[in-house]
Automatic annotation (TrEMBL):
Keywords: Metal-binding. It comes from Rhizorhabdus histidinilytica. It comes from the Bacteria. The lineage of its organism: Bacteria, Pseudomonadati, Pseudomonadota, Alphaproteobacteria, Sphingomonadales. One of its GO terms (molecular function) is metal ion binding. This is 2-keto-4-pentenoate hydratase/2-oxohepta-3-ene-1,7-dioic acid hydratase (Catechol pathway).
Length: 285
């Protein structure tokens, strides 16, 4: 199932994408199944029941008549660096023996079609297509063999990076957390609709229609189960937590000359069977 969140004249709602047709219910409707945030906390059964309600009672939605929102409000956002071998090579770094982990704040993320902001203090805004893993079942010290039981679904992620700030120090936090510099969406696709661990899916980025990244999630150095198991050694993962699994080669930083996103650019992150996350770049006022 593929869930989306939207805002229309009737308020905020949740929709189900059924082969390109959107069936939705707003929060004022009697049958409204609840926001996706709440459904994630309700587990697999809540998502399944919501899908059935939307399929049977949802009203057809004109996608051009609504504002698509973040599919859900992410909890903690754990990001993985250097998780594609080709990306490690293009940046001149060794293949890591352990996952490289950093975090993003919710304030750094916008939804589909919302502007990604180029800050006035930098011109080095880079694109990074990533598979986002959405946790649906809490857990600590999760075994690799059990890890996928904790996944509610997947989404697209653009780990927009302010490279000059990121590389000023060995710690990447500031360059990865400028307000509204990255994005998530457009949909939450439940795990049962995709291959195990979302492996083998084509992942690509287009900048102004030109393909600049192209790979497959089969190329991840550390797959979804390993990432979940490693993170859960430190923290109890919670519904709504997001793991952004890293980006393949082709980033702007590694090009000669570098390719930075600028005001007016359109960046699209597409993952097979999940969707296309589209954002326009806007310069900070």
């Amino acid at each position: 199932m593929k869930f989306l969140s939207y805002r229309a004249a009737g308020g905020v709602g949740v929709a189900l994408d059924v082969q390109g047709e959107y069936l939705g219910l707003a929060e004022g409707d009697a049958a409204f199944p609840g926001a996706i945030d709440r459904l994630l906390r309700g587990g697999e059964a809540a998502l399944r029941d919501a899908g059935e309600v939307l399929r049977k009672q949802g009203a057809r939605i004109d996608p051009s008549a609504v504002e698509w929102l973040l599919p859900f409000n992410p909890g903690r956002i754990f990001c993985i660096g250097l998780n594609y071998a080709d990306h490690a090579r293009e940046t001149g770094q060794a293949i890591p023996e352990q996952p490289t982990i950093f975090s993003r704040f919710g304030s750094s993320i916008v939804g589909p079609e919302a502007p990604i902001i180029l800050p006035r203090v930098s011109s080095h805004l880079d694109f990074e297509a990533e598979l986002a893993v959405v946790i649906g079942k809490p857990g600590r010290h999760i075994a690799i063999g059990d890890a996928l039981d904790h996944v509610a679904g997947y989404s697209c992620f653009n780990d927009g990076s302010i490279r000059d700030y990121q590389l000023r120090t060995p710690q990447w936090t500031i360059g990865k957390n400028f307000d509204r510099s990255g994005s998530l969406g457009p949909a939450l696709v439940t795990a049962d609709a995709l291959p195990a661990g979302a492996s083998g899916l084509a992942i690509r980025t287009r900048l102004n229609g030109e393909e600049v990244q192209s790979s497959s999630t089969a190329e991840l150095i550390f797959g979804v189960p390993r990432l979940i198991a490693t993170l859960s050694e430190a923290v109890e993962l919670q519904p709504g937590d997001v793991i952004a699994t890293g980006t393949p080669s082709g980033v702007g930083l590694a090009r000669k000359p570098p390719l930075w996103m600028k005001d007016g650019d359109v960046c699209e992150v597409e993952i097979e069977a999940i969707g296309t996350l589209r954002n326009v770049i806007r310069a900070e006022a």
